[in-house]
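BUG: 3D viewer hangs when loading the predicted structure for this chain

Environment: internal workstation, default settings.
Expected: structure renders.
Actual: progress bar stalls at 90%.

Input used:
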Amino acid sequence: MSWWRPSDVGYATRIKLADVGYGARFFCRLVGLVGPTFKRFSLVRDQIHFLGNYSLAIIAVSGLFVGFVLALQGYNILQRYGSAEAVGLMVALSLLRELGPVVTALLYTGRAGTSLTAEIGLMKAGEQLSAMEMMAVDPVRRIIAPRFWAGVIVMPLLAAVFSAVGILGGWVVSVVMIGVDPGAFWSQMQSGVDVWSDLGNGVLKSFVFGVAVTFVALLQGYVAKPTADGVAHATTRTVVMGSLLVLGLDFILTALMFSY
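C-alpha cells produced before the viewer hung:
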C-alpha cells in the first residue's frame, strides 16, 4: 500500500490555497485601511518609534562593519587592476543597490518582525483581540494596520541609515587606514552613482521589503495558535518566511531593474 493517497494531496493543496486566499484578503484589507490609519497618526508614530528606534543600533553597527569589509575586499581586488581609487564607487554601489536594502530587511526580520509576531500572538493568546471584538473595536484597524504602515515607513529609513553608515565605514578603511586619496574616493563615487537608477531603485527595494516582511510578521502573529507553543512556532515561521521572501524578491527586483 502506498504511503500517500491522491485525496491527501488534494486536501493539502486546498488548505494551502485557502491560506493564500486568506492572506491576500488580509493584505487587501490592510491596504484599504491606509486612510483611517493615518487619520490617527499617533498610533503609527508610536509604532515607528518602536520598530525604528529600537532597531537603529543593530542596523548602524552592522552597516559600519559591512562597510569595513567591503572596503577591504574591494581594495584588494581593485588594486590588481590599478583602480584602487574606485573603491568608494564600489562600496557605494554595493550598498545602495544590494546590501543596504537586503541586509537591512534580514536584520529587520530578525529584530522587529519577530517582535511583531510575538506581540500579536501573545495578544491573541491572552484573548485581548477577542475582548476588543466584544467591545465592537476592530483589532485589525486598531492594532494591525498601524503596525503595518509603520513598518512600511521605517524600512526605507533604516536602509538609508545602513547605507550611509556603511559608506562612512568604507571611507575609514580606504582613506584613513589604507591611504586611498580622499578626493578620488568621493569624486569616483559622485560621478558613478546615479540618483534614479541606483539610489531610487534601492529605496524601491527597501519599500517592497518593508511591505513583505511586516505583512508576514503580522499575519503569522494574527493566525498563530493561542498557546505558548503556537506563538513560538509563528515567530520561527516569520524569520524563515520573511528571509526567504526578501531573497526571492531581491532576485526578481534586480532582474527587472538592472537587466539592461
